[in-house]
Amino acid sequence: MLPLLLSLLSLLLLPSSSCASDFCVADLKGIETPAGFACKKVSSVTVDDFVFTGLGVAGNTSNIIKAAVTLAFVDQFPGINGLGISAGRLDIAVGGVVPLHTHPAGSELLYVVHGYILAGFISSANGVYYKYLKKGDMMVFPQGQLHFQINAGRKTAVAFVSLSSPSPGLQITSFALFANSLPSAVVEKVTFLDDAEVKKLKGVLGGSG
């Protein structure tokens, strides 16, 4: 009996390689797959892989949408690989907007910390759900649904978001339509906009064709 107990105790006290199953820090030098990134070797993991400091700094809102989205997805925060979470920060200047967009692989929870935000989403059945939010309010946007945030106040609005995937994806509808090389004639067909309007929007957003 004693030899058996000693054997079990020795197994418990051995340096464990099982800590690799505790986490899977992303090896960003590898290729991302639908299952995530491959794991970094545990021997090369450091505490910095589990820390992200970028959300404490206001984003630059000097752009066409007067808003900044600071992401803490797996590409910026390798420690969240495989954990089903990510985060971000929204800074929306007066008159600013985070246009209609979608996260194909994750739901989003928005928490307002400063200012007023008009936020909403459109369901796949074209139901519309929107609300004016103030400091302390939260709103959830279900996975894959088109949603938006607009500054509804007289000062910069700030919100933090959490998402249910380390790599939820981000596609902004306006940029998807007008910031690429899809021929204008095709865009006109799928949007019912006339040629002048399509070319104007392509010019504003940097598209061609």
UniProtKB/TrEMBL annotation:
It is found in: Secreted, Extracellular space, Apoplast. Mn(2+) binds at H101, H103, E108, H147. Gene3D superfamilies: Jelly Rolls. Oxalate binds at H103, E108. GO terms for cellular component: apoplast. One of its GO terms (molecular function) is manganese ion binding. Residues 53-199 form the Cupin type-1 domain. InterPro entries: Cupin_1, Germin, Germin_Mn-BS, RmlC-like_jellyroll, RmlC_Cupin_sf. This is Germin-like protein. It comes from Ananas comosus (Pineapple).
